[in-house]
Amino acid sequence: MIALRIVMSLFGCLFAEARAGVLVDQNLMYLQNSMNTNATESTSHYHASITLSATMSKDLYFGWKSNYFGDSQQTSAGTMSVSGLEMGPRAGYYLTKGHWFSLNLAYLAIHNATYTSASGVVSKLSGSGFDFELAFHPDSLSKLSPGISILYHLGTYSTSQDSNNTVSTVTYSRNGVYPSIYLHWRFGEE
Question: Which of 28-37, 38-47, 65-74, 94-103 has the lowest mean pLDDT?
């Protein structure tokens, strides 16, 4: 709880120092594929995020990002899935004068997930992660710029807790490159 208060205080200071405006970014991605052979296999992935940022100059902004994600793989052995929530600070930079392209980096210090193995064993995972994103969002409306982005995501897990509350040290990871629909909202910029 103390860590959350510190983060919120720092975030409040960021907004107090905002020079040009407030940004809200949203991403949404869903992929599904299947392979039909003697044993049908399918995989699905989803990733949704929202970021609240304050601009520090015309081209630089800082904020807080929250991701909700999930992966599922169905095979003849059963269904394996992982889903969770991750949050952390994000920095972004507009690459062009017209703000059509941006580059974003997030450190996801809070990274929690639930993993279910194909045999049905459930584990709670925790660790940290990174997002690296290149976004294209041409100015088409006054405050809203819809676009697309390519997101590289890396999540690492260092602890696992089973149903008996036994905590163990693990070295798991989850990574991928995702295309997504990107909405970029700007308020109060000059």
Answer: 28-37
CA distance 129 to 133: 13
| Token pair of 22 as six digits | 């407030």
> From CA 145, how far away is CA 111, in angstroms rounded?
29
Reported pTM: 0.80
Cβ burial of 113 (10 Å; 0-12, 13-18, 19+) is: buried
Contact 128, 153 (CB under 8 A): no
Distance CA 155, CA 158 (A): 10
- β-bridge partners, 48: 28, 68
Three-state SS at 177 = strand
